[in-house]
């Protein structure tokens, strides 16, 4: 019988990669984007924030889903630069070569639409702050914590998503987080209804913290992404 448990950073890594490969969007379905994506969205969290990382265990020790987060995104990005990128250099898999420091060398950054893998590597090694959406107003300050969750199709629509999010919110709160955010595809109506039922709302662009009563417009991260927020 399936159950939730803390992540095992070493033993669970292959399963986390598998869940990512199966559930990732079309842009990450081919190599080297798949491997780079796993190193962006799976590997840093058990390494840097194991206390707020959990897996859905099939009952036989295999992770069939994960929810990975951190109570402090800004500090997470700092430690990503200082500590996590060192692990990438130790034994880089195919397609994971370290990119140049574009700013220091005066080289134009690769654009996602022109060289997607090179763009991902730039984010992974050079710009974790942008990858973690810290360039969006209020994220990382007003809403410090964040998480993301993926579950294999075999275990979806069984109530595990709610249980995993509830566990994550309790864990983030226990770590001192006052609020949390996550990114979601704007077109994902089912996920939108799910998070709405769990008390999340859209992060809005406003000029004066809504002092004038206006709600503002949807705050997106590009590529059809919107941000959802919740106070803890």
From TrEMBL:
Protein name per UniProt: N-acetyltransferase domain-containing protein
N-acetyltransferase domain segment(s): 64-232
Coiled coil segments of this chain: none
A GO molecular-function descriptor: acyltransferase activity, transferring groups other than amino-acyl groups
Lineage, uppermost ranks: Eukaryota, Viridiplantae, Streptophyta, Embryophyta, Tracheophyta
InterPro entries given in the database record: Acyl_CoA_acyltransferase, GNAT_dom
Superkingdom of origin organism: Eukaryota
Annotated source species: Solanum lycopersicum
CDD domains registered for this protein in UniProt: NAT_SF (cd04301)
């Amino acid at each position: 019988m399936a159950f939730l448990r803390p992540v095992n950073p070493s033993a669970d890594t292959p399963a986390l990669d598998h869940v990512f490969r199966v559930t990732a969007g079309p842009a990450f379905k081919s190599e080297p984007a798949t491997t780079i994506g796993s190193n962006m969205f799976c590997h840093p969290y058990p390494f840097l924030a194991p206390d707020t990382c959990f897996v859905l265990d099939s009952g036989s020790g295999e992770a069939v889903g994960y929810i990975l987060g951190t109570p402090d995104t800004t500090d997470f990005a700092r430690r990503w630069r200082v500590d996590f990128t060192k692990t990438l250099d130790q034994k880089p898999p195919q397609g994971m070569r370290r990119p140049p420091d574009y700013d220091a060398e005066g080289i134009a950054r690769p654009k996602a639409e022109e060289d997607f893998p090179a763009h991902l590597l730039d984010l992974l090694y050079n710009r974790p702050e942008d990858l973690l959406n810290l360039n969006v107003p209020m994220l990382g300050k007003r809403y410090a914590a964040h998480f993301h969750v993926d579950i294999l199709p075999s275990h979806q629509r069984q109530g595990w998503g709610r249980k995993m999010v509830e566990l994550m919110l309790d864990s983030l709160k226990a770590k001192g987080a006052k609020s949390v955010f996550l990114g979601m595809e704007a077109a994902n109506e089912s996920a939108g209804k799910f998070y709405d039922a769990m008390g999340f709302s859209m992060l809005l662009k406003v000029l004066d913290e809504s002092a004038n009563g206006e709600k503002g417009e949807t705050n997106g991260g590009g590529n059809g992404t919107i941000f959802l927020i919740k106070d803890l």
